[in-house]
Design brief:
Chain A has 176 residues and is α/β, with parallel strands linked by helices. Helices cover 34% and strands 19% of the residues of chain A. Chain A has helices spanning 34-40, 49-52, 72-81, 94-102, 113-116, 148-156, 159-175; strands at 5-13, 58-61, 85-88, 107-109, 122-126, 131-134, 139-142. The model of chain A has no long low-confidence stretch (mean pLDDT 93). Chain B is of the alpha/beta class. In chain B, α6 links the parallel β8 (156-162) and β9. In chain B, α6 (171-182) packs parallel to α8, α10 (301-311) packs across α12 (340-346) and α10 packs parallel to α13. Chain B starts with a helix and ends in a 10-residue tail after the last helix. The model of chain B has no long low-confidence stretch (mean pLDDT 96). Classes of the chains: A alpha/beta (176), B alpha/beta (415). Chains A and B meet through α4 and α7 of A and α2 and α5 of B.
Chain lengths: 176, 415
């Protein structure tokens, strides 16, 4: 069962059309070792980023977060940093679907979020209902709730787990 | 309520009479396809992990073998044989070495107007010009096992093209010009529906080339109500009977974009961003080391014909590797009949049978510091080999003119 309501700080606010591969840089697209990736994380943005982030912190994006196909190292990097989710003004169409497939990261589309939070603000985010509480600025922002079919898929552990469950349910109903 | 062609198709495959943008609907595609991707075994491992012993609706599935073509290692030959056997056991059609699936699906009559088709690769969008709805999916596993999945009905942007394309300018350039204005998010989450006299004037190859990389502007797909030219193309490739679907005249569009094609110039996408599209003149004279004409975004008869017109009686530059790869076997046959093959080979190009491999560096990879002009789909870092190489994506005529001069050149100088 996914933990839908999470607290964390805004670790970074990315530019529009953020390309996830830029987390580790174009020269490191084939790296998949979590410790190496943690050291490479955000190297083109800020040195020593990994030391400043706490487990559970969020990434915030402007519009069209997730441009272009992301390599495997992206999620490994975010997990190594302990990123608790991504909230963006908008995502590319494929990004939330891909995240739901992997049941990681939790993502929330929340138009205007990038203008309403500052770096290191403490947020409480309900990734299912879409409610974002900025505990630092004492403001509530309503995002777009996650579609029910995606919620079901994330709760069971992603696409593979969901398909396996459906298949097993189908077999069980046939045998009864 | 009036509907667009997209809404009508999604209503049918979701078993309802009416849908509107934003609706989340459960759909059953008319056809789902995939290919032997870079990590073929890795790609099919999830099927074993979920315990699937068969594929849902195998008669509505096609497996194309167009990557790793020809196979280059014993290890991969063994993997591919295993994967082929899996598909044969499931009863899924396997189409091997006939060309790039995104083109061959049309040529074999497998896709028809009014259909909803899906694939994990966004390049299927090329087929939208046949009056069908191609929607790429990240959930192919679900479609393979369960047969249906969920999609959000996209809003539609009306794209009206006026005027006539000048010589040496192709659908590819029209798309790059649209992309230059739309940017990477201008079409986000919506579908582009083409129409207008400029669109009607373009031949089918140009339309496919224009639609191929639609997703680079954030749009989910491209489509057009089929005109006579589209229906003639479909009917020339026999398949199941179909019922064409058209947008209602008073359908609602989210936005309208208008472009005049007359007086247009060639465009280029500058490395390493696929959406960094600019007029070609900004990079004329850039020294190149490789020139590539092929892929599902080009390599069709119109493209080969344009390249042959430019290269006729010319020799390629001695310092440039030139790879020309017709997109399908049928296209190669037509190019041979028209004498295009002879012209190209006489000019010194390396002509290959159809394959996806040149587009992603699995054949003729770029070395460190090299520069390539390409009609391939992508110009991102490392796409065609070295991460220290650069790729300029252009139309087929630009590849040919640049191959002659050894630097990025304008095909209109040779026409």
């Amino acid at each position: 069962m996914a933990d839908w309501v999470r607290q964390g700080r805004v670790a970074w606010i990315f530019e529009e059309n953020f390309v996830p591969d830029d987390l580790m840089g174009a020269d490191n697209l084939t790296v998949e070792d979590p410790e190496i990736l943690k050291g490479l994380a955000m190297k083109d943005y800020e040195s020593g980023f990994a030391e400043k982030v706490q487990p559970g912190d969020f990434f915030v994006g402007k519009s069209n977060y997730g441009y272009a196909r992301a390599h495997a190292g992206v999620n490994i990097t975010m997990k190594a940093l302990g990123i608790g989710g991504i909230i963006a003004d908008s995502f590319t169409l494929g990004y939330p679907a891909g995240a739901a497939n992997n049941a990681y990261p939790l993502v929330l589309t929340c138009p205007g979020i990038s203008q309403k939070v500052s770096r290191w603000d403490l947020l409480e985010v309900d990734f299912k209902s879409g409610v974002v509480k900025n505990l630092t600025a004492e403001e509530i922002i309503q995002g777009i709730p996650t579609p029910e079919d995606m919620v079901r898929m994330i709760e069971v552990g992603g696409l593979e787990a969901d398909v396996r469950r459906n298949l097993e349910a189908q077999k069980a109903s046939k045998s009864t | 309520m009036p509907m667009t062609i997209t809404e009508k198709i999604l209503a049918r495959v979701s078993g309802t009479s009416q849908v509107k943008p934003g609706d989340r609907v459960k759909v059953t595609p008319d056809l789902a396809m995939w290919y032997n991707s870079v990590n073929t075994e890795h790609f099919f491992a999830p099927l074993e992990r979920v315990g699937a012993k068969k594929v849902a609706d195998p008669e509505k599935r096609i497996f194309f073998i167009d990557h790793h073509t020809p196979v280059k290692s014993v290890e991969y030959a063994n993997v591919l044989n295993k994967v082929k056997k899996m598909h044969q056991d499931w009863g899924v059609r396997v189409v091997e070495r006939m060309g790039i699936g995104h083109q061959v699906m049309g040529e074999m009559g497998a896709v028809r107007p009014g259909m909803y088709i899906t694939h994990f690769d966004s390049a299927i969008v090329s087929m939208g010009c046949l009056g069908l709805l191609p929607l790429p999916t990240g959930e192919l596993l679900r479609y393979m096992v369960e047969g249906s999945g969920y999609v959000t009905v996209p809003a539609t942007i009306k794209v009206v093209l006026n005027g006539e394309l000048p010589k040496g300018v192709q659908g590819r350039d029209v798309w790059l010009r649209i992309l230059a204005e739309a940017g990477p998010s201008g079409g986000r989450g919506r579908i582009l529906e083409y129409m207008g006299p400029g669109y009607e004037g373009m031949d089918m190859d140009s339309r496919m080339g224009m639609m191929n990389t639609t997703t680079y502007c954030g749009a989910v797909s491209a489509i057009a109500s089929p005109d006579q030219k589209a229906l003639d193309w479909v009917d020339a490739h026999p398949g199941e009977p179909y019922e064409a679907v058209y947008s209602d005249p008073d359908a609602h569009y989210d936005e309208e974009w208008r472009f005049d094609l007359s007086g247009m110039e060639p465009y280029v996408a500058i490395p390493p961003k696929p959406y960094d599209a600019r007029p070609l003149r900004e990079v004329l004279g850039t020294t190149i080391h490789q020139a590539y004409l092929g892929s599902c975004a080009s390599g069709r008869v119109e493209d080969l014909r344009l390249a042959a017109q430019v290269l006729k009686g010319q020799q390629k530059h001695p310092d440039v590797r030139v790879n020309v790869v017709p997109t399908s076997n049928l296209i190669m046959q037509e190019a041979a009949r028209e004498g295009i093959v002879t012209t190209l080979v006489e000019s010194g190009v390396f002509l290959s049978s159809p394959s996806c491999d040149y587009c992603f560096g699995n054949a003729s990879p770029l070395g460190d510091g090299e520069v390539c002009v390409s009609t391939g789909t992508l110009n991102i870092t490392g796409r065609m080999g070295s991460t220290k190489a650069q790729i300029y994506t252009v139309n087929a005529g630009v590849v040919a003119a640049s191959a002659i001069e050894g630097k990025i050149a304008d095909p209109r100088d040779y026409l």
